[in-house]
Hints:
This protein is an all-alpha fold.
Amino acid sequence: MNKDQVKGVAEQVKGKVNEAVGKATGNKAKELKGDLQQGAGEIRKAYGDGKEQAKDNAKRNAP
Protein backbone atom coordinates (compact mmCIF):
# COMPACT_ATOMS: atom_id res chain seq x y z
CA MET A 1 0.00 0.00 0.00
CA ASN A 2 1.42 3.39 -0.96
CA LYS A 3 0.88 6.89 0.40
CA ASP A 4 -1.66 7.82 -2.29
CA GLN A 5 -3.85 4.88 -1.37
CA VAL A 6 -3.67 5.75 2.34
CA LYS A 7 -4.34 9.46 1.80
CA GLY A 8 -7.17 8.64 -0.59
CA VAL A 9 -8.91 6.44 1.95
CA ALA A 10 -8.36 9.08 4.66
CA GLU A 11 -9.93 11.73 2.42
CA GLN A 12 -12.91 9.46 1.80
CA VAL A 13 -13.40 9.01 5.55
CA LYS A 14 -13.18 12.76 6.17
CA GLY A 15 -15.71 13.27 3.41
CA LYS A 16 -18.14 10.78 4.92
CA VAL A 17 -17.86 12.52 8.29
CA ASN A 18 -18.45 15.95 6.74
CA GLU A 19 -21.39 14.63 4.75
CA ALA A 20 -22.95 13.08 7.86
CA VAL A 21 -22.44 16.25 9.89
CA GLY A 22 -23.90 18.31 7.07
CA LYS A 23 -26.98 16.10 6.86
CA ALA A 24 -27.45 16.07 10.63
CA THR A 25 -27.21 19.85 10.92
CA GLY A 26 -28.97 20.71 7.68
CA ASN A 27 -25.81 22.39 6.39
CA LYS A 28 -25.93 21.78 2.63
CA ALA A 29 -22.49 23.36 2.08
CA LYS A 30 -20.82 20.94 4.52
CA GLU A 31 -22.73 18.05 2.99
CA LEU A 32 -21.52 19.05 -0.48
CA LYS A 33 -17.97 19.45 0.81
CA GLY A 34 -18.18 15.90 2.13
CA ASP A 35 -19.37 14.60 -1.22
CA LEU A 36 -16.51 16.36 -2.99
CA GLN A 37 -13.96 15.06 -0.50
CA GLN A 38 -15.19 11.52 -1.03
CA GLY A 39 -14.83 11.91 -4.79
CA ALA A 40 -11.32 13.33 -4.45
CA GLY A 41 -10.41 10.49 -2.11
CA GLU A 42 -11.68 7.90 -4.57
CA ILE A 43 -9.60 9.46 -7.34
CA ARG A 44 -6.45 9.60 -5.23
CA LYS A 45 -6.91 5.99 -4.10
CA ALA A 46 -7.43 4.88 -7.71
CA TYR A 47 -4.23 6.70 -8.66
CA GLY A 48 -2.40 4.89 -5.86
CA ASP A 49 -3.90 1.59 -6.98
CA GLY A 50 -2.58 2.23 -10.49
CA LYS A 51 0.90 3.01 -9.19
CA GLU A 52 0.86 -0.17 -7.13
CA GLN A 53 -0.28 -2.20 -10.15
CA ALA A 54 2.48 -0.71 -12.30
CA LYS A 55 5.07 -1.55 -9.64
CA ASP A 56 3.80 -5.13 -9.41
CA ASN A 57 3.86 -5.50 -13.20
CA ALA A 58 7.41 -4.17 -13.35
CA LYS A 59 8.51 -6.73 -10.73
CA ARG A 60 6.85 -9.57 -12.63
CA ASN A 61 8.43 -8.55 -15.94
CA ALA A 62 11.93 -7.89 -14.58
CA PRO A 63 14.67 -10.19 -15.87
